[in-house]
C-alpha cells in the first residue's frame, strides 16, 4: 500500500495489484453454463504442472498455456468474447474506472465470539467468575431451540470477500500494475480477482474502455504510466493554492 | 633521572605519533542514504520497493530534499489555502524520522510563545514548497521525544534564525548536549534501558536508576533472529539512486 496525492493536495492510500501471466483459458456458452450470460474462464499466476492430475491439465493443454495457480470465471456478454489463449494485461483497465476486488481474507484460525463477531463480553471485575469473553445467552426461553446461523466461536477468515467500487488511480503498463484506491481483502502477495464494478452509481464511469480487451501486439502504443486526471504526477512542481 | 613534582621517578613516555589526515579520501568516504529508501524486513515483493523508489527519485529531481538528521534544525514552507500569501513557514528541531518509502515523515518541534508545537510533515507530499536546513547536526539519540519532558529552553529556536553554513566533505558535528528534565512524572519513563537514551542528564537518585535497570534485556543484542544487516542493500540502493539523480 502506498500514498498517492491528488492535484488539490489530498492524500489517498492505494493498493498495488500486479497482473501476472493472465490468460483466457476457455469459453463456456450460455446453454452450457445455464446462466443468463456466457462465461470466460481465466487463469492467473504460472505454477508447476507436476502437482495436479491429468484431467485438470486438459484445460491448459487445449489453450496452449502453462499451468495456472488460480482459475476463475467471468460473466461476459456475447460481443466481448475473447479467443482462448490470449494474454490479458493491466492495460485492460483504465484510470478513472471503478473496480470490484475479490480475494480470500487473512485466515485467523479458530477465534472466540468477541473477535469473530464483535460481541462486548463481560466486565473484568465486580465479581465475574471465569466469564470475561463468553457469548452469554444464546437463545430465549420461548424459542426452546438455538436458531440456525447463531453467531458462535469458530474458524474466522480464509473466505472470499469483495470490496466494491474501488477507483483505479494509475496503471503501469511496463510492469502490469494497477493502483487501486483503499484496501483490498487478503494478505500481501495473495491472488485476487479484479472485475468491472457492478454498482449502479458506477455504471457511467467507464468512458472508453479497451473493448473487448487490450491486445499487446495491436496498433495502440501506450505510455509506460497512465494516470487519472486528478493524480499529482511527480514530474510536476509542488502544489500551490493561488 | 629527573624527579617530577609528585615525587615519583618520571617514566619514559614516547612522543605522540603524527596523525596523517588524507582529505581527498575522506571526501569520498561520506555517503548519505536517506533512511526511507531502505526497505523494511518483510515478505513484500521487491518490485514494489523498486517502483516506489522510482517515484521518490522522480520527486527528488524536481524538488530538492536536503540531507538532515534527527537533531538538525529545519525550516519548512508548505502551501496553505487558509493563510495569507497561501504559504506557511515553520522552524523546528527534527525529533523523529519515521515511515519508509513515499510515506516517510519527520516531526519538527518548537516552542512558540510558551506553547510547545510539534508538526509532522511528509517528505514527499506535493504541498511542501521548500525545506531548508538551518543547522545540520546529529545528536546522541535517534529519537528526541524526551524533549517534551525537558525544560522548554531546549526546544525553543528562533523563527528568524540565520542558516549556519556547513562545509561539504566535513563530518557532521555530533552535539553531545545532556538535556535537563522537568520534575517527574514524564510522559514515558525515559530512564528505562528500553529507550537507551544517552542525551539526558538524569538527576534521579541512584536507587531509582538501579531500579530502572531491572527492566533491562541484555539478551536482546545477541538475538540472531532480530538481526537485519542493511549494509549490502544500502550500497546497491545508493548506487541506483545516485545514477538516477545524475541523469
UniProtKB/TrEMBL annotation, chain A:
PROSITE patterns: RIBOSOMAL_L3. GO terms for biological process: translation. Keywords: Mitochondrion, Ribonucleoprotein, Ribosomal protein, Transit peptide. It is found in: Mitochondrion. GO terms for cellular component: mitochondrial large ribosomal subunit. GO terms for molecular function: structural constituent of ribosome. It comes from the Eukaryota. Gene3D superfamilies: Translation factors. Belongs to the universal ribosomal protein uL3 family. NCBIfam families: L3_bact (TIGR03625). This is Large ribosomal subunit protein uL3m. The gene is Mrpl3.
From TrEMBL, chain B:
The keyword Transmembrane helix does not apply. One of its GO terms (molecular function) is structural constituent of ribosome. Residues 1-27 are annotated as: Disordered. GO terms for biological process: translation. It is found in: Mitochondrion. GO terms for cellular component: mitochondrial large ribosomal subunit. It comes from the Eukaryota. Pfam families: Ribosomal_L19. Keywords: Mitochondrion, Ribonucleoprotein, Ribosomal protein, Transit peptide. Belongs to the bacterial ribosomal protein bL19 family. This is Large ribosomal subunit protein bL19m.
Amino acid at each position: 500500500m502506498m500514498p498517492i496525492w491528488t492535484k488539490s493536495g489530498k492524500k489517498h492510500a492505494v493498493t498495488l495489484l500486479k497482473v501476472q501471466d493472465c490468460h483466457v483459458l476457455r469459453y463456456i456458452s450460455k446453454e452450457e453454463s445455464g446462466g443468463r450470460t456466457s462465461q470466460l474462464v481465466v487463469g492467473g499466476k504460472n505454477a508447476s504442472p507436476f502437482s495436479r492430475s491429468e484431467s485438470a491439465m486438459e484445460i491448459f493443454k487445449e489453450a496452449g498455456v502453462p499451468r495456472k495457480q488460480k482459475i476463475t470465471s467471468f460473466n461476459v456478454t456475447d460481443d466481448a468474447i475473447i479467443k482462448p489463449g490470449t494474454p490479458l494485461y493491466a492495460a485492460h483497465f483504465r484510470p478513472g474506472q471503478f473496480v470490484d476486488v475479490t480475494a480470500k481474507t487473512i485466515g485467523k484460525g479458530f477465534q472466540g465470539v468477541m473477535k469473530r463477531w464483535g460481541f462486548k463480553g463481560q466486565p473484568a471485575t465486580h465479581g465475574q467468575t471465569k466469564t470475561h469473553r463468553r457469548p452469554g445467552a444464546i437463545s430465549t426461553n420461548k424459542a426452546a431451540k438455538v436458531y440456525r446461523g447463531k453467531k458462535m466461536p469458530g474458524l474466522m477468515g480464509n473466505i472470499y470477500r469483495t470490496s466494491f467500487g474501488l477507483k483505479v488511480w494509475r496503471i503501469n503498463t511496463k510492469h502490469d500494475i494497477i493502483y487501486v484506491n483503499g484496501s483490498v481483502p487478503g494478505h500481501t502477495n495473495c491472488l485476487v480477482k479484479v472485475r468491472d464494478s457492478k454498482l449502479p452509481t458506477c455504471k457511467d464511469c467507464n468512458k472508453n474502455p479497451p473493448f473487448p480487451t487490450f491486445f499487446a501486439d495491436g496498433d495502440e502504443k501506450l505510455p509506460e504510466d497512465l494516470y487519472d486526471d486528478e493524480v499529482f504526477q511527480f514530474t510536476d512542481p509542488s502544489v500551490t493554492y493561488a | 633521572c629527573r624527579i617530577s613534582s609528585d615525587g615519583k621517578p618520571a617514566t619514559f613516555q614516547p612522543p605522540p605519533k603524527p596523525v596523517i589526515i588524507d582529505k581527498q579520501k575522506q571526501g569520498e568516504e561520506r555517503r548519505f542514504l536517506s533512511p526511507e529508501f531502505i526497505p523494511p524486513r518483510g515478505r513484500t515483493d521487491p518490485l514494489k520497493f523498486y517502483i516506489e523508489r522510482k517515484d521518490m527519485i522522480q520527486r527528488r529531481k524536481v524538488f530538492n530534499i536536503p540531507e538532515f538528521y534527527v537533531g538538525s534544525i529545519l525550516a519548512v514552507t508548505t502551501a496553505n489555502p487558509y493563510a495569507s500569501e497561501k504559504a506557511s513557514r515553520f522552524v523546528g528541531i527534527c525529533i523523529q524520522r519515521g515511515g519508509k518509502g513515499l510515506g516517510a515523515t519527520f516531526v519538527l518541534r518548537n516552542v512558540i510563545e510558551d506553547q510547545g508545537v510539534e508538526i509532522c510533515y511528509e517528505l514527499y507530499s506535493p504541498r511542501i514548497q521548500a525545506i531548508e536546513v538551518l543547522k545540520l547536526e546529529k545528536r546522541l539519540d535517534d529519537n528526541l521525544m524526551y524533549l517534551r519532558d525537558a525544560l522548554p529552553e531546549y526546544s525553543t529556536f528562533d523563527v528568524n534564525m540565520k542558516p549556519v553554513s556547513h562545509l561539504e566533505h566535513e563530518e557532521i558535528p555530533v552535539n553531545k548536549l545532556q538535556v535537563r528534565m522537568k520534575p517527574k512524572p514524564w510522559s514515558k519513563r525515559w530512564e528505562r534501558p528500553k529507550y537507551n537514551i544517552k542525551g539526558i542528564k538524569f538527576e534521579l537518585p541512584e536507587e531509582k536508576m538501579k531500579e530502572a535497570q531491572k527492566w533491562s534485556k541484555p539478551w536482546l543484542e545477541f538475538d540472531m533472529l532480530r538481526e537485519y544487516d542493511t549494509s549490502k542493500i544500502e550500497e546497491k540502493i545508493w548506487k541506483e539512486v545516485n545514477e538516477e539523480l545524475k541523469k
